[in-house]
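Technical annex B. To support the medicinal chemistry partners, we prepared a structural model of the target in complex with magnesium ion, based solely on the information shown next.
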Amino acid sequence: MAELLAVSDLTRRFGGLTALDELTFRVDEGMIYSIIGPNGAGKSTLFNCICGIYRPDGGTVRFRDEEITGRRPHQVARRGIARTFQNLELFRHMTTMENLMLGRHLHMRSGVWNGITMLHRGSRAAREEIEHREQVEEIIDLLGLHAARDRYIWQLPYGTQKLVELGRALATRPSLLLLDEPAAGMNFEERQDLLFWIGDIRDELGVTIVMIEHNMQMVMGISDRVLALDFGRAIAEGEPAAIAAHPEVVRAYLG
Ligand code: ADP
Ligand code: MG
């Protein structure tokens, strides 16, 4: 399989704390790749370094044969990397549909506000608007968000809000999707649904997925490979069964 993302010797410090300590791993195209580890292990910091929110102190990030280390968030997004946040970042007083349309704005040549407000029939903005709505409707279908479509975010159960955020990331049509604890705060049934949809996103849209998950059991069934982090270092990397049985992983989780 072709390499899509390669992280090499990535280091990030906060004062005296080394949140990422020369971390190295690679993700191939089409994988569901999970990153597990206790709280404070450096998982979210890793995503922030990949996406350009934090500048790493050392090491490199490569995406499709191009080094993207230290690029700004919008530059990373334009290359086809989308993410969700551990703490929801949605517009609560906008509807599901409106939030998903905002995800499309990367692709709007005439700009998101033209797309939303200029509805002159036949104008380029209007044609784009229709195209984007169709794409967003596809995502609503894929994630079963019909009932939430025209409701405000604040009116939705937490599990559904998390799905909308996933949908908004998908609306940018990424080739790589980074999910930071997508199942956090969900009940058992919502978690099962989410795993099913993550599988669908990979299988039907061909999106490569890197998923952070605090709960190790949650990712074992769905992941092609798993990276276990502790104190910013890789303590184990490999196929799910091997990671679950790895003595260092067991110690990190129990100790
Ligand atoms: P995880 O997502 O695995 O729970 P984080 O990546 O959020 O862990 O954090 C890793 C470590 O880095 C923690 O000790 C955290 O307190 C620290 N850290 C993360 N972001 C910052 C920041 N902006 N300033 C200071 N310390 C931070
Ligand atoms: Mg985190």
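Notes passed to the chemistry partners:
The first strand starts at residue 3 and ends at 14.
Residues 14, 17, 19, 37, 39-45 surround adenosine-5'-diphosphate (ligand 1) (CB under 6 Å).
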